[in-house]
Amino acid sequence: MIQKMERLLPYVSKINNYLLEYSSIDDALNLCIRDIGLEHNIDRCYILKNKNNNDFVGLNYAYEWCDTGVKPYINHFDVDKILNNAFLSSDSILYKDKLSFGLGKDIDNKLLKKILEIRTVKSYFFTPIFSDNVFWGFIGLEDCRSERIWSEREIFVLRSIAKSLGIRLSQTTAISQLERTVEKFNFFMSSSNQAMWEFDIETEKTNFSLNWYGILGYTNEEINDIPDFWTKIFSPSDKDKILKDFKDFTAGKLDKFEGTTRIIHKKGHYIFAKYSGLLKLNKKGIPKKVIGTYMDISELVEKEKQLSLSETKFRFIAENTTDLICQHSKEGDLLYVSSLSNDIIGYNFEELINKCPWNFIHKRDLSNIKKYYHSIVKNKEIETITFRFRKFDGTYIWLETTTKVMLDSEKKIIGFQTSSRDITKRIKADKEMKAAFLKERKFNELKSNFVSIASHQFRTPLTVIYSNAELLEMKINNFQKDSTECKVIISRIKNEVERMTELMNNILVFGKQEAKKIEKVIQPIDLNEFIETLTKTYFNKVDGAKIKVIKKGAKKIFYTDESLIVHILTNVINNAFKYSVGKPDPELIIIYLENTIEIQVVDYGLGIPKKDIPYLFTSFFRASNTNSIIGSGLGLVIVKQFTEFLNGTVELKTKENFGTTIKLIFPYEHQ
Q1: In b/e form, how buried is each residue of 48-64, taking b as 16+ CB within 10 angstroms?
Q2: Which residues are within 8 A (CB) of 451 and not within 5 positions of it... i.e. 6 or more apart?
Q3: Within 13 Å of residue 180, how many CA atoms lie on the same side as its CB?
Q4: DSSP state for residue 124 in the 8-state scheme
Q5: Does the model's pTM come out above 0.70?
Q6: Pairing of strands 270-281, 383-390
Q7: Average pLDDT of span 154-181
């Protein structure tokens, strides 16, 4: 019971504050019935007002508060007439300043019982309001959920509140009656964060309620023992203004005495307080007393400060980021839009408040947006989506939006926060890249097919020409005549056919590599034996130039693709012979190192001009000093591509007119 009473104390103080501070009786009464309804956990609270304050002639449905989902009746058609009939036919105990409360099912008045059934009332409480001993009206409380048993404390509090309302309604005797009510509720004030004071204008003496100890740390005795305590509790910056306002208020120059200030605690620190005063006049209209309250709002001020800082930080971040920041209600409507909305989507943020963003989304993306929304609601996790959004000018842009769910303390969704950025250029670039990729792939396929077809088409007639040249050479030899000139011609034909065949082979191999159609077959080889066979087969001809093979280090097994190594070495050695005619024979040096194997091909021929070196590994490029020597410009390209394909590297050293060294470095095992 004590705990329940303590719970009721703060709201009783709030009711008194409404009655003291609000000049509008309508505002005060609406706030009162709202707090009564909330504190007593009822469904409907209202005030029925006597149409005539002197003689009872009927009731008027004047004020009403309803809990969420409860049907209001204040504007219901003919409700006043129905209620008048019900109460006029009752025993009129309310008009005798008596309470009426209980269960709806137990009420004797059939008409009133029927009305309460229509309003689904299970428990009711009616307490009359008298002003200047005249029935002014009554407060009605209705519980539609449970058959409530009203406690003595609740009855006492509601009865006291009704009396306070009556006092507030009386314009001539309000202050004196309110004083007695305030005294009656002093014990309520002692457990709240409010303190009352009363200033006698004639004696200039101030009386303080007991709760000043709770706010300022002073006992009642200490307050009375401190001279001019009234003037010493304010902060120096506020003191002069408050004292001046108070003086003007008691002199009738100010209509209100209210505000917020800092007052000094006994321990020396400041607390924030809200103050207000009510002026009491004597029968001649001369100011007699001021009755007021101080409320400790330090906690509220601190929370407001922290909230303000949080809002400031949020707005600073939201207004200085390149993304469009928005906050939505749990239904999705826009509650906040950062100022970048004008730059990104063409709307001023004021135009978008309370609008549903779904109305701006491209119809083809709506189904995805709805799935996205339901997924967020279900999983309560951060998710991202891209969609088309209609700008102010009617055009669409692509937005990439990340959504975060906002939850209350009970982990229930209260809204969403989104961050959106314009990715139209990125989408366009992706599409262009995909189109370019498809175009390049088709081109590579076409090039590969062309190279393959062209190579094969060239190879067939070249084979025929070469075979016929050999046949012709054989026939001439059979005649055993002087055929020197014919042999020279035949030799030229065969040399050119060989060169053309080499070119076609390089083109065919290059085309396969470009089309990514070459596969590796890794197997162990004896490199010494492999080099000996390769040079004897392709390069060391009888009565011709020969390549000198040099081996260094202990031989190790080399794991590689034999066919690719053939392509690599034949191209490098061919170049060595081709560009060193008339010079010392080329050298092929094999060096077995600990972790790698090096193959160097050294020639002492033309060398390469310095300005051409950066372009040597470019397709179809030939050095400027090789115009008189037939070549494809693909040899070194193939060497580099195949070497890297086998996890190797290529190094080149050259000097014009002094020769060239190609160094190939491979790991022993291919990984």
Answers
A1: bbbeeeeebebbbbbbb
A2: 507, 508, 510, 511
A3: 10
A4: E
A5: no
A6: unpaired
A7: 73
